[in-house]
């Protein structure tokens, strides 16, 4: 078994599987993908975590923390772009790991991504609930604390957090066209709000607030980077929509890189203005730092607008995260590593309805019962782990298949992937020890499931035993049908 767990699947096999059940609707272009990326990136990080990181870790050097996190994500984004253009399949890092490293590492990445997206959905929905509750309170319609707070924080259940996940799930189940349209509208609103904050706040910057610039030292800056790394999670979600893209070889790399660049510029501008408007220690008292800063300088209407923008921002994050998680579960189930019941496309909506419902059930329960601090840190370590493995996969596949056609090539290999691994590795080390322990426990649970179920039910295992209903060998496409993805003499199942 030790050799078989590292068996790989060919790109052609993955591509042919995208046509099962008629495939998904390919309607997204560069603009739609970039908007999905921005929709997923700009949210909790800019509206919530900026204040937490400034007050507790980075101080005014929050700008440097954002730059460090951006460098880590930028190197990883280039690695993602190479794979996304070469393997336009919905599984994202899971699929890339299957091709480059084999089934075992694909499972590790996939299990890692399940952790990332499920907990990200929960964390963002809890943040959404907080802003929603504040708006209702300002309107004189305050909800009972018992129904907007997790049990660990003195409540019974966070109902708004659960409700928004189900609303988003229903939108995603309707189809990618509807989801993309809703996301585009929301992104325009929240970008306008971020622009409003920059325009209003820049004239109220007091350079004295930037002193001391690095109150917690470099250790605080890197810890701050590991915390606000959550703010950048989202560009990788672009690759999960690969099976719904019109021209994935060109559009996917553009969407990934453009969304990350735009959001990085916004983050640096907002963090510089935010810490210049308000002494960093004052952010210890608020969970809405952007609105709080505007209130302090007298822009109460601006603070209200930011609250609305935050609600919109968090909603679009939920929309894209929910979409990404359902696609990853769908592909893993289609491969047999999870129950194949969830690897089904609804013929009417062309969406993975069953996996979407599973995501909604699990993430809404977590959102209703678990506090935000715990889930946010677990999201970060899950994402960093995935970035490390994808970056390593680029180096390995360049060695294993140097002649394989790559519509987009990550520059300066192996330097860029190595930098991504080093940056992400440092950020993992800087996370709290309890988070690292929880992550190891999660991976251990995943290994039990893989060896107890996934390995035995994998479509590769069934093909080798001759028990697969639809033979895997049928997945091999002629190179002429997919010239941009020609694999030469690679077989359907590689060992």
From TrEMBL:
Topological category with respect to the lipid bilayer: Multi-pass membrane protein
Gene3D superfamilies to which the protein is assigned, alphabetical: Amino acid/polyamine transporter I
Entry's Gene Ontology cellular component terms: membrane
Pfam families linked to this entry: AA_permease_2 (PF13520)
Keywords: Membrane, Transmembrane, Transmembrane helix, Transport
GO MF term (any one): amino acid transmembrane transporter activity
Protein name: Putative permease
Protein's organism: Megasphaera elsdenii DSM 20460
